[in-house]
Each structure stands twice: as structure tokens, then as C-alpha cells.
Task: inverse folding
């Protein structure tokens, strides 16, 4: 049995200004946790990961010759895009689905998940980013997620095909927003989530370094297979290349 990885990377180091990472790349769980009491259908749902996000990250990384980093565990185990002080770091319920194995979690188990999975992922990402910033003077950091068309728990109108999330780097964000809108896409500016309100991993590792960055949120049904992932890579590659080439 192969070792369960909290994080892993692909692509060359320091060959491109672009550096991509994917917090919610997989629905994988360590063997000892089984399926956390969920059905196969529930584990395959958006509550467990961001469908299509890892495939898009990998393809864009290949095209841009970029280093890419992936979280190796499901957010249902522990969410890497949440701070340790948050009540939803380990979710007891997600989008009206109860996660029985996360109910009444002991302090010891919570600490075990932090030390065995959460912390190693963030240490790995931090190490990779540090190496990248030493090799590249003005890198572009891109975080990639996907979102579902609608939530079960509340009525939500999500008309966007893609959202661009940003907090400090408005210029990079709007380069991508304007390019995608020019192609007739419905693009959300800090939608369906706002990075100005919360974007933990980016704030911790990227914003703290003052690096150029943006977060992509693609609607998951639009990147559900290889053909559509390629189509979206075609669209997103163009503005990312423009940003890379604009680097001094």
C-alpha cells in the first residue's frame, strides 16, 4: 500500500513565473477513516472536494511549464482552506449532509488531523512557494477551485460560469475578468465567494508575501470531463500568459 500524501507537487521548479495550487484537489481519505460514514455518492459530491479543479490545475501547469501543488486529502477530513480557530475546520455537517465520523470529535483527534494532514500540507506549500520566490523575482500565484451551481441548504442564485476572487491584487484579477467577459462568459467579481471576506490559504501564504495572485472558481459542471477541462484551459491560459509576460 502506498503512503498517503498530505501534499504533492508536479511540474518543473522555477521555470515559469506562474505557480498554481489546489486546496480541494481530491476526495481521498486515509484508510483508517473509511468514508467518514458517508455513501459513495456523498463522497463524490462537492462537499468532499472541488470536482475538476485538480485536472484544470494540472493542465494549466503543463501549458505554462509551471510548478503545481495539490492537497492530498478531502476537506471533510480537515479543511486546508480554514484557519485553526474556525469551527468549520472539521465540518460536522456540509451543505445539509451530516458527517457522522466528525460528530463530537475529541480534542486529541482534532489535533491528530491538524498535525498529520493539515500542518504538513501548509508546510509543504510554504516550502514550495519559498523556493519559487527565490527563483522568480515577480511570480504570479494562482489558486484554483470549483463551485457547484446551487447549494442544498439554502436558496442560492449562482449565474456565473467562473468567478475571479481577489483581495489585494486588483490589477491581475481584472486582467482575467475582462478577457473572459470579452469571450462572452458570465464572470463573477469576487463571486460566488469573496476573497475580501475570507481566503485563508492565499492570505496565509501569498498575501503575506505581497505576491501577485488571484483565485479561480470554475463552475464544476463546466469542467466535468477532459474535453471541457481543455476548453477552459484554452480560455484561462491567455490572460495568465499576458500577466506572466507583463512581469518585469
Result:
Amino acid at each position: 500500500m502506498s503512503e498517503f500524501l498530505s501534499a504533492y507537487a508536479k511540474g518543473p521548479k522555477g521555470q515559469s513565473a506562474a505557480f498554481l495550487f489546489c486546496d480541494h484537489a481530491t476526495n481521498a481519505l486515509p484508510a483508517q477513516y473509511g468514508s467518514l460514514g458517508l455513501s459513495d455518492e456523498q463522497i463524490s459530491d462537492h462537499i468532499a472536494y472541488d470536482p475538476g479543479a485538480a485536472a484544470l490545475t494540472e493542465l494549466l501547469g503543463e501549458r505554462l511549464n509551471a510548478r503545481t501543488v495539490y492537497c492530498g486529502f478531502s476537506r471533510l477530513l480537515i479543511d486546508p482552506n480554514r484557519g485553526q480557530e474556525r469551527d468549520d475546520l472539521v465540518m460536522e455537517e456540509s451543505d445539509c449532509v451530516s458527517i457522522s465520523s466528525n460528530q463530537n470529535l475529541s480534542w486529541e483527534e482534532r489535533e491528530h488531523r491538524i498535525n498529520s494532514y493539515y500542518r504538513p500540507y501548509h508546510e509543504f506549500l510554504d516550502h514550495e512557494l519559498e523556493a519559487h520566490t527565490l527563483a522568480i523575482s515577480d511570480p504570479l500565484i494562482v489558486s484554483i477551485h470549483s463551485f457547484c451551481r446551487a447549494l442544498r441548504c439554502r436558496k442560492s442564485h449562482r449565474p456565473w460560469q467562473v468567478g475571479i476572487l481577489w483581495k489585494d491584487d486588483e490589477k491581475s484579477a481584472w486582467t482575467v475578468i475582462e478577457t473572459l467577459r470579452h469571450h462572452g462568459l458570465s464572470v463573477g467579481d469576487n463571486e460566488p465567494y469573496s476573497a475580501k471576506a475570507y481566503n485563508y490559504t492565499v492570505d496565509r501564504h501569498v498575501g503575506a508575501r505581497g505576491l501577485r495572485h488571484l483565485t479561480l472558481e470554475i463552475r464544476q459542471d463546466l469542467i466535468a470531463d477532459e474535453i471541457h477541462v481543455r476548453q477552459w484551459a484554452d480560455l484561462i491560459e491567455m490572460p495568465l500568459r499576458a500577466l506572466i509576460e507583463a512581469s518585469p
Summary: Residues 7-245 form a domain with the Aminopeptidase fold (CATH 3.40.630.40).
